[in-house]
Amino acid sequence: MSDEAEKNIVGQKYRRVLLKLSGEILAGEDKTGINVATIESLASQIHEIHKLGVEIAIVIGGGNIFRGMKAASEGMDRATADYMGMMATIINGLALMDFLEKQGLISRLQSAIEIKSIAESFIRRKALRHLEKKRVVILSGGTGNPYFTTDTTAALRAIELSADVILKATRVDGVYDDDPEKNKNAKRYKNVSYMEALQRQLKIMDSTAFSLCMDNKMPIKVFDIKKQGNLKKAVEGDSVGTLINSKEGAEYYVD
Ligand code: GTP
């Protein structure tokens, strides 16, 4: 996105968003698996923003079912473990599609790994067509390659699909300038630049994902999706979470 486009979009309703949902979010209060009440509430929040006319692509993780990196750290072959993680994202994608359709939202599941009897293959132009037709597109299977996270997938797909922003759904209310659990004076950013986030080593995404966003000026909004209604607020403006973009000079919340 150009600097001009980025400037115009800040503070306005986004037209096309890439929502990144981790597998852990789907687990809700349970540590693993899919919590039905949680996925229902996510689907209803997605429905809310769909009603605003926003085009929605979703990249979904798989950590609630299988964590590739953890298995690799315990001795499993990293590539095999990552493929298992990618399969987990397809399972989550199927569940999310089901719950979205129960809300009456037309959705399409695509996968970066060929699994034709279960999901469409990821085809960029087809995904764009679905978005134009206001279908929710769920992008599963990661990038289709081991050694890449679903945050990197989110960055890549957001750029490929010309999304206005990555909405990174988390369980925290934004990014702080220090660890709020260790430093009670830590301040929460409303807006922080890529450069400052790098210099302060704020852990927003892994370095591959973050570099992709920074190099392509893809804004990232980190927000707490647990609170019903926050997704709509994140789409409508800057009242929740932290926006990371190329704008210099950090802004903080006055809590
Ligand atoms: P349009 O081309 O805009 O009409 O899109 P469409 O998605 O409605 O049409 P299409 O005929 O491509 O798809 C009809 C249904 O089949 C949709 O639910 C798709 O998600 C699904 N579908 C399409 N291609 C595949 C595939 O390769 N595998 C699987 N499992 N489903 C597919």
Keywords:
single chain; 255 residues; alpha/beta; Carbamate kinase; 10-stranded mixed sheet; 10 strands; 40% helix; globular; binds guanosine-5'-triphosphate
List the SSEs and their pairings.
Layout: H1 3-9, E1 16-21, H2 23-27, H3 36-51, E2 55-60, H4 68-73, H5 78-102, E3 107-111, E4 120-121, H6 124-132, E5 136-140, H7 150-160, E6 165-170, E7 189-193, H8 194-199, H9 207-215, E8 220-224, H10 230-236, E9 242-245, E10 251-252
Parallel strand pairs: 1-2, 1-6, 2-5, 3-4, 3-5, 6-8, 7-9
Antiparallel strand pairs: 7-10, 8-9
Helix pairs in contact: 3-5, 3-10, 7-9
Bound molecules: guanosine-5'-triphosphate.
Question: Any overview of this molecule?
Answer:
The chain is an alpha/beta fold. The chain has one domain (3-252): Acetylglutamate kinase-like (Carbamate kinase). 40% of the residues lie in helices and 18% in strands. The chain contains ten helices and ten strands. The chain has helices at residues 3-9, 23-27, 36-51, 68-73, 78-102, 124-132, 150-160, 194-199, 207-215, 230-236; strands at residues 16-21, 55-60, 107-111, 120-121, 136-140, 165-170, 189-193, 220-224, 242-245, 251-252. Strands 4-3-5-2-1-6-8-9-7-10 form a ten-stranded mixed beta sheet, with helices on both faces. The protein is globular, with a radius of gyration of 17 Å. The two termini are 32 Å apart. Residues 7-12 have low confidence and may be disordered. Residues 108, 116-121, 129, 133 line the site of guanosine-5'-triphosphate (GTP).
